[in-house]
């Protein structure tokens, strides 16, 4: 992934409030001696109309944070709000509806339905919910993402980048309050990845959307307005108007703290030739769970 991100203006609704909020958010897995504290009393505000990236070493709690903020996972303690709605304590049925109606999702694997064309994939969540898309908004999304001449194509007839653009349009179609993107460029080559990041940027700048993106790639994070750094289940740092170089430097400090690499066999913060970064120094196995496309994935 090329590291240079274009200069961008902050999202247009920058000072327009908080899209999601967590207080003392704690998530533990397991019990007794085997308990893993994935999130340790996290306080976070996700600003509306901005593009926030979440970074941190493997196992630092990024996915758990995203899942708890999106109501995909229960919390062990603390509170989470989407807008003014406290989602901690909601029944599963209400959570499913809230996710469907108010949150858009993008995942590393695009999760498109192979038998449906692009247009049908884009509106599928709304069709399932029995909602009629706002055609003017949908047209704006389709044109912003450059999908107008691809609407009749099925996923197999589209490139990876085009498929992710369809997934992006699907996430945007209902004009959600918040879009969560989990490694959205993880399966794309650097050019397609850059394109998708550019569209997410446009969704924020031109369409007033709010995006939270989990990524391992400093080049991807550089497209955001703000990077939150997680380590051991806590937000330990943040960076406004990030550059890939600054994010990379910050990430290297985690590696230095974690493990001395005295054997000279490479550091955990290796930068790939394309500028992409893997905290393990090698390609990241695709461990993202399969999610259903309707914005209410089942937690496995
Ligand atoms: N279902 C689970 N059961 C037990 N432990 C879990 C579960 N899910 C996550 N964990 C643990 O919680 C911690 C945080 O995991 P999480 O997946 O949120 O990290 P991450 O920063 O997203 O990691 P990566 O970058 O490798 O995807 C890790 O120690 C992980 O092993």
From TrEMBL:
Chain ranges of the ABC transporter domain: 20-257
Amino acid composition bias (Basic and acidic residues), ranges on this chain: 271-300
GO molecular function, one term: ATP hydrolysis activity
Keyword Calcium carried by entry: no
Pfam families: ABC_tran
InterPro entries, A to Z: AAA+_ATPase, ABC_transporter-like_ATP-bd, ABC_transpr_LolD-like, MacB-like_ATP-bd, P-loop_NTPase
One GO term describing the cellular component: plasma membrane
Claim: Transport is one of the keywords in the record: yes
PROSITE patterns: ABC_TRANSPORTER_2 (PS50893)
Region (Disordered): 257-300
Matching SMART domains: AAA
UniProt keywords, alphabetically: ATP-binding, Nucleotide-binding, Transport
Name this protein carries in UniProt: ABC transporter ATP-binding protein
Organism field: Streptomyces spongiae
Classification of source organism: Bacteria, Bacillati, Actinomycetota, Actinomycetes, Kitasatosporales
């Amino acid at each position: 992934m090329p590291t240079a991100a274009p200069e961008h203006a902050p999202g247009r609704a920058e000072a327009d409030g908080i899209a999601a909020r967590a207080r003392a958010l704690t998530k533990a897995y397991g019990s007794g001696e085997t308990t893993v504290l994935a999130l340790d009393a996290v306080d976070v505000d996700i600003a509306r109309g901005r593009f926030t990236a979440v970074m941190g070493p493997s196992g630092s709690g990024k996915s758990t944070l995203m899942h708890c903020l999106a109501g995909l996972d229960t919390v062990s303690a603390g509170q989470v709000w989407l807008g003014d709605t406290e989602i901690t304590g909601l029944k599963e049925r209400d959570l499913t509806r809230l996710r469907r109606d108010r949150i858009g999702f993008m995942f590393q694997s695009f999760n498109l339905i192979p038998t449906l064309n692009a247009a049908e994939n884009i509106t599928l969540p709304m069709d399932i919910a029995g909602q009629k898309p706002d055609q003017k908004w949908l047209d704006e999304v389709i044109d912003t993402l450059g999908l107008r001449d691809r609407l009749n194509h099925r996923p197999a007839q589209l490139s990876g980048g085009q498929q992710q653009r369809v997934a992006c349009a699907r996430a945007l179609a209902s004009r959600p309050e918040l879009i969560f993107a989990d490694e959205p460029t993880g399966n794309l080559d650097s050019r397609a990845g850059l394109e998708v990041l550019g569209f997410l940027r446009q969704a924020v700048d031109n369409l007033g959307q709010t995006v939270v993106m989990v990524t391992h790639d400093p080049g991807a994070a550089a497209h955001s307005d703000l990077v939150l750094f997680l380590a051991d289940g806590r937000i330990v740092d943040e960076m406004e108007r990030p550059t890939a170089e600054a994010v990379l430097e910050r990430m290297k400090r985690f590696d230095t703290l974690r493990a001395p690499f005295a054997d000279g066999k490479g550091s955990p913060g290796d930068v790939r030739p394309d500028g992409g970064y893997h905290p393990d120094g090698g390609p990241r196995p695709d461990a993202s769970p399969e999610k259903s496309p309707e914005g209410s994935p089942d937690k496995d």
